[in-house]
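Researcher: Re-running this chain for the archive, since the previous output was lost when a drive failed. Same request as before.
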Amino acid sequence: MTTTYDPLDPAFLADPYPAFAHLREHDPVHHHPADHRAPGFWALSRFEHVWDAVRRPEVFSSAGGLTFFPDEIGTLGLPPNLVMLDPPRHTRLRALIGRGFTPRHVTRLEERIRAFARARLPEVTDLHRDYSATIPTFVLAELFGVPEEDRVRFGPWVQQVTALQDSTLNGAGLDEKPDGIGAVADLLTYFSEAIADRRTRPAGHRGEDLIGALVDAEVDGERLTDWDILGFCFVVTAGGSDTTAGLISHAVTLLGEFPEQRKLLLDDPGLIGPALLEFLRLESSVQGLARTTTRDVEVGGVTIPAGEKVMMLYAAANRDPREFGETADLLDVRREVRRHLSFSSGPHFCIGSHLARLQARVALEELLAARPWIAVDPAAGTRHPSAFVRGWTSLPVVSP
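Model: Regenerated structure tokens:
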């Protein structure tokens, strides 16, 4: 257990919450000095500070990248994407994408997700590897209309892109991850060919998958370009896989720590859907992302200069007792979460939040119905080595 905030230290990554608590109480507008691993940056840890900052993109801009590393995405040659744009361009692009990425396109997947989850359950010996991580990959393939014959390639691409993202977001050099770079190139080529295919079809007949819907999307006569669609497809793939898998695995881990809360869900499975926000509050899949200040700005009596990277520590803010009371560090599946930062807030509120919650709800409903007292061994598991995404790569099941 450590109270030192060092986002690249394995000891901190293993259990960041004591350090987050220390920041909230003693150094809520923290300046982290530069060292040989990363440039200097600031970090906000109190709920009200983070909530206010993410809702002011004119001061805390996303255009400079989402980590404290310089140009972490641009070095990979990725297409422009929604999460690294500010209004007004972000607003118009989000409106266009929203026409294709609607709850209708998501909820139609529920029964297929449920059937897939049920089929996985007999094979689960490692909760994360055999169950949690397989569901988002299946859903992405369904969402994008990936044919069955292509899924043998698609699954490994998703896994390699996730691994690449972990290492890139922690500042590893590109020469250290050739497999991941190849996966990015292959995936972007695949999506480019799928977009071209949809564009050759008559309007209104481009299929029910997300790519067809995005090709058809129109707002005030404006349509998405190929690059816009490509960027969004990549963001959904890179950002919607390990985060959703982490939510499922963390939910089971937390229920092992709080067995009385598991009993509440078993007695009333209708609580599972609302409880997802509580799981995410306690174990935020996205621990934090950065913004760049566009001008000098005062936060909590401290002036942050213009042009500085500022980490929005969602995971620290989500356990702030000022917002969630004295039980902020405890699981309460009946808690009414009025506000939270698990999906950020403001203009960059996660556009895929309804998809993530659908997958996690179905996954947990099926898991708890079939194996109500399933237990895992976090000490024997392995985590993502990331300062930005908290999740697992392995989480063995043990006999209850």
